[in-house]
Amino acid sequence: MSTDTVDDRDVVRTSNTFLRDIWTNFMRWNINAIRNPFVVVSSLVQPIIFLVLFTQIFGNVVTGTLPGGISYESYLVPAIAVQIALIVASSSGIGLVDDIESGVFQKTLVTPMNRVAIFLGKTLSELIRIVIQVVIILVLGVILGADVATGLPGALAIIGIAILFALWFLAFSNVIALITRDQESTIIAANMVQLPLLFVSSAFLPVSSMPGWVQTVATYNPITYGVDAARALMLDADVMEVLDITAFGGIWNTLVPSLAVLIVLDVILGAIAVYMINRASSASVQ
Amino acid sequence: MSTNSDDDRNRPVDTDRRRAIEAEGLELTYADGTEAVSGVSLAVPEGEFFGFLGPNGAGKTTTIKVLATLLAPTAGSVHVNGFDVEGEAQKIRESIGYMAQETSVINEMTARENLRFACDAYGVPSADRGDRIEELLDLVDLAAVADKQAQDFSGGMKKRLDAAMALVHRPPLVFLDEPTTGLDPKARNRLWDYFEEINDRGTTIFLTTQYLEEADHLCDRLSVILDGEIVADGSPETLKREVGGEILDVELDDGTEARERAAEIVRSDGLFGDDPIVELTDDGISITSREARKRGPDLLVALRDAEITVTGFNVRSPTLDDVFLAITGEHVDADASSDEERVETAADPSTAADGGNP
Questions:
Q1: With the C-alpha atoms ordered A11, A13, A16, A21, is the resulting torsion angle positive or negative?
Q2: Are residues B225 and B266 located together in one domain of the fold?
Q3: Is residue B358 part of a domain?
Q4: Contacts of A90 (CB under 8 A, 6+ apart)
Q5: pLDDT per position as a tens digit, B261-302
Q6: CATH assignment at residue B295
Q7: Greatest alpha-carbon span in chain A
Q8: Are strands B246-252 and B310-316 parallel, antiparallel or unpaired?
Q9: Of B190, B214, B235, which residue sits at a domain end?
Q10: Containing structural domain, residue B215
Q11: What pLDDT, in 10s, does the model give residues B167-210?
């Protein structure tokens, strides 16, 4: 072999940077979402149906029972925002299983891309979807008569809460995906917990109006904390019923405990997910 | 393990041809205790088209996954492009292309987007990307459908796209794990041309296959793996010579009973010297011997005397399948199909021996 051919074959690499790898995967999953408009649209359909139906059907009954003359629209919109986060996050694991089944997961693992960046890019793409869909719901809610009492900063904070809330469920979805390694099981597992958990939380009705055992479940249901935090911002009020905290004053009596619960959940499930993903992509384990 | 001599042996040898792959005593035992590879040693010089042959479950894919840094070896020293698979996996990933056994392309993306993704993943300089992508699209004949989504592609098109994705960074070493399994002959030939072309350009290729015809057509050198161990090694020609003679295929009219009687005649009459290899085939018997050509007519007479009807016969040079049979006692690409099934399909004219009546 002549040295010419050797030189010709020498690879000139722009060294992959961490951010570049995140971007590569972020764009890949964005294209994925755009090419599957049905999936994107259908993940919006259920929350919109809930928003419209619930406000139309229960609006008159519930509005009277809500304190301080709050409209049911304003009461419900934060819950629907959290529902959006839940639905999009639950699809995260499905994308991962799809990748494992199709061999694309392995294909990305033999590239020099940073493994953390591969997952960060994917997660970022899912979070962007949540942001866009929550914005759509907020706008739709306002059109239907909801009112964001804390204004634009509050609306942005609600988006932040949706992201914070999404992370633990996103991690959960990936953990289920890596345990089952099967699309159907992942979809079933995610759907199985989604709807019942929404109903036994503060999402649709005041917890105080529910039977005692549901109140107990709602107290330990993470959805309650996501919804309460978003609702506190929406209504500019201390809306938390499951914990009686008065130390921080006003809406912070809801926000501080809610954020604490969500952050702890994010860290715990995030750590489990990172551990499992590491194991799945490390060379020592099949 | 840290004596000088060990270190020296583990380094790639800097002779006129450097080693693209060097494995010493590679072992891999899965967590459940299954020993997939037990002490494989390999040395593949740069520029070689190397074939790794074996039946399903022999350890081919496990070995290739270790070389491509997807699995860590349980024991042994493994260097790829001069880098250690355990300490320098990142450098290996930058300098190899890997085409997995199962086709993996991103279905939602077009062919061009798939290649762009691969360019990004391998850090191909942005100035080179456009040209590189067009060149590969041409090479694998996908230029006309470059902007169609991969999910609409046929199996062969996906395979070609998959192969192109493994080459965007012009790796000096490419792993192809059964790249043509499940393809029709036309698609297979196209991929072969393509692999030969990149090998001609100096790329080292490590190919696993179940198709002996493929190995014979493409490879400079072969290793045969069976139950996790290498059992033979050499060029296709050398391996064929090791079979020891030529093959006499005799096609018989009657069923299993006639074949067994014929085989018994071959063994007992001593027509073919000491130790002819006799095998019952789909539609007759097959004898491997140095005397195959000379003694063929005598056998026909003996069979006629025993009232066994011969419908055809043929003397030929050994194929790699015969090599495989001689080494392992089984056909390399004999899958789940049982003898019974094979007898049934023997009525198909395409499976009849060369000398058979139409």
A1: negative
A2: no
A3: no
A4: A169, A173, A190, A191, A194
A5: 888 888 877 777 767 778 888 888 888 888 888 888 888 888
A6: 3.30.70.260
A7: 87
A8: antiparallel
A9: B235
A10: 4-235
A11: 999 999 999 998 988 778 888 888 899 899 999 999 999 999 87
Number of domains in chain B: 2
B334 has pLDDT over 50: no
Contact B194, B163 (CB under 8 A): yes
CA A64, CA A69: separation in Å to the nearest integer? 7
Query: Each residue of A17-54: pLDDT tens digit?
Result: 899 999 999 999 999 999 988 888 888 888 899 899 88
For B14-72, what is each residue's pLDDT tens digit?
455 689 999 999 999 988 888 889 889 999 999 999 999 888 788 888 999 999 999 99
pLDDT at residue B329, rounded to an integer: 67
Q: Give me the phi and psi of B288, to 5 degrees please.
A: -110, 120
User: Does the pLDDT value for residue B9 go beyond 60?
Assistant: no
Q: Which of B215, B235, B255 is the last residue of a domain?
A: B235
What pLDDT is attached to residue A70?
Answer: 84
Of the candidates B30, B108, B202, the beta carbon closest to that of A6 is on B202
Opening angle at CA A208, ends A207 and A214, nearest 5: 55
Tokens of B61: 């894919």
Degrees to nearest 5, angle at CA B165 with B161 and B171: 140
Question: Is B100 in Cβ contact with A8 (below 8 Å)?
Answer: no
CATH of the domain at B72: 3.40.50.300
Question: A108–B121: do the CB atoms touch at under 8 Å?
Answer: yes
- What value, to the nearest 5°, has the Cα angle with vertex B4 and ends B2 and B6? 65
Residue B36 covered by a domain: yes
CB contact, 8 Å: B75 with chain A?
Answer: no
Cα–Cα distance measured from residue B184 to residue B246, given in angstroms and rounded to the nearest whole number: 30
Model pLDDT for residues A118-137, shown as the tens digit of each residue: 999 999 999 999 999 999 99
Same domain, B202 and B281: no
CB contacts, 8 Å: A13 with chain B: 94, 122-125, 169
Residues B211, B270 within the same domain: no
Give domain limits for chain A. 17-281
Distance CA A167, CA A263 (A): 9
Total residues belonging to chain A:
286
Cβ contacts of residue B33 below 8 Å, gap of 6+?
Answer: none
Q: Min CA distance, B16 vs chain A (Å)? A: 9
Residue B356 lies in a domain: no
> Are B103 and B188 part of one and the same domain?
yes
Q: Are residues B166 and B257 in the same domain?
A: no
In a domain, B357, yes or no: no
